[in-house]
Design brief:
- By secondary structure, the protein is mainly alpha-helical.
- It is 51% helix and 0% strand.
- The protein has 5 helices and no strands.
- Helix 2 crosses helix 3.
- The chain is globular, with a radius of gyration of 12 Å.
- The termini are far apart.
């Protein structure tokens, strides 16, 4: 949720490109369900970060300096 809001996306704008329902995103954010590996991979790609960051394994949102806000 923090990453989604920090990038200015609503739940629908996250759900559509990764092919899930808005209800799925809502359940993830509430902690009632967790995304599967494929969903995490698609989410990381769309959000230009890593699965490690999304899963809490690292605090480094942009490994190797790949900050999407910097051109």
């Amino acid at each position: 949720k923090r990453l989604r809001k920090g990038r200015g996306f609503n739940q629908k704008e996250l759900a559509n490109p990764i092919g899930v329902l808005v209800d799925s995103v809502r359940r993830w954010e509430w902690g009632h369900r967790f995304p599967d590996v494929e969903e995490l991979c698609r989410m990381a790609k769309v959000r230009k970060t890593t699965v490690s960051y999304l899963s809490g394994e690292t605090d480094d949102e942009f490994p190797l300096g790949r900050n999407p806000k910097v051109s």
